Amino acid sequence: MAEERLDVDVAICGAGPVGLALAAFLVRRGVEGKRIALIDGKSLGQAITDPRSIALSWGSVQLLDEVRAWPLPATPIHEIHVSRRGQLGRSLMDRAEHGLPALGYVARYGDVVDALARACDKAGVATLRPVRVASFDEDADSVALRLDDGRTVLARVAVQAEGGVFGQQDSRAQQRDYGQTALIARVSVGEPVARRAFERFTDEGPLALLPQDGDDGHQYALVWCMRPERAMDVQLLDDAGFLAQLGEAFGTRLGKFTAASPRVAFPLGLNAEARATARTVAIGNAAQTLHPVAGQGLNLGLRDAAVLARQLGRGATPAAVEGFMRERAQDRRLTISLTDTMARAFTLGGPLQPLLGLSLAALDMVKPARLLLADLMMFGRR
């Protein structure tokens, strides 16, 4: 029996939001759907039922709209309140200063995947799932990806859009263990502030609350970063104990925390490895895994997808890969540096902390600086 082989221009390993967005952007740039292969280890049903919350910047919403994956169920963020626990000073970013309907939106991962998958399906993109890449072989003209079901995909360019098999760890990768674990959950509060998100820096790490679920604003998506040993203890608390600890860490700006979903924990680290060969390239989390402070991971990945599609739309060639790496270098470097600095600086102890609190007050008073920071968070380095 002859081996089944699919010949395409671009093979995308990973059909999460970034991989799906790349496929949709490629179609918008003139690549036929049948010349694109999406490969993923999960079924679509598994992906669209994923309840995790993700923050979409206003720039990302524009990108989703471009590929007809917007609107989708989401809660708008009109304001972002940034503060340091136990110190004076805070900053408030407001959509009104930018003349926008929202600074961003909070959506469920599964809803974003569903909207993008529908766009790709309408475009006739070849989707192979659930299946994994077992091995690959690159030569001067193509990349052969051998799947664990026996099929082979022969592509002119192969893209790693999430965890995959391409190559070994690059010794030049920027890596950092933050010594933190993130607890994520959905929580309810007694005194919500409609459409306001909070980024609260504590001694152990940032604590983010993102408004979600309906117009009443009583529910928030929580990302709470702390030392691993403390995270283990907090995760084992019953709901009452957990909510009491959360209230102590966050304060009373939203009244009392009244309910919480089951908690999930994951370790935090920086791994920035924007690697590429002549015919393979990594984007999104495969290229850079960031600290969740300021919620920039997915937004950076969607910008990767948009730029790579523009380059590959001119031809799936080594020149397109090289052009992508060159064009994305500044935005990647700035976003990684900004999130890394924020993740570390606000957790330092000692006499620096009052200065950091004052820096937030100064940011609030100096409008051009505040607008510039918000612009970077919404659109990246332009």
Describe the structure.
It contains 10 helices and 19 strands. The protein has 382 residues and is of the alpha+beta class. The radius of gyration is 21 Å and the shape is globular.
Summarize the SSE layout with pairings.
Layout: E1 5-13, H1 17-28, E2 36-39, H2 44-48, E3 53-57, H3 58-66, E4 74-77, E5 79-84, E6 90-94, E7 104-108, H4 109-122, E8 126-128, E9 133-138, E10 143-147, E11 152-160, E12 174-189, E13 196-201, E14 206-212, E15 219-226, H5 228-235, H6 239-250, E16 257-260, E17 264-272, E18 280-282, E19 288-289, H7 297-312, H8 318-345, H9 352-365, H10 367-379
Parallel strand pairs: 1-2, 1-11, 2-8, 5-13, 11-18
Antiparallel strand pairs: 3-7, 4-7, 5-6, 9-10, 10-11, 12-15, 12-16, 12-17, 13-14, 14-15, 17-19
Helix pairs in contact: 1-4, 1-7, 7-8
Order of helices and strands: EHEHEHEEEEHEEEEEEEEHHEEEEHHHH
Mean pLDDT: 88
Secondary-structure-based class equals alpha+beta
Q: From the coordinates shown, what is the CATH architecture of the domain at 5-55 and 109-172 and 270-344? A: 3-Layer(bba) Sandwich
CATH superfamily of the domain at 5-55 and 109-172 and 270-344: FAD/NAD(P)-binding domain
Radius of gyration: 21 Å
Please mark out the parts with pLDDT under 50 across 5 or more consecutive residues, or reply none: 164-172
- Helix count, per DSSP? 10
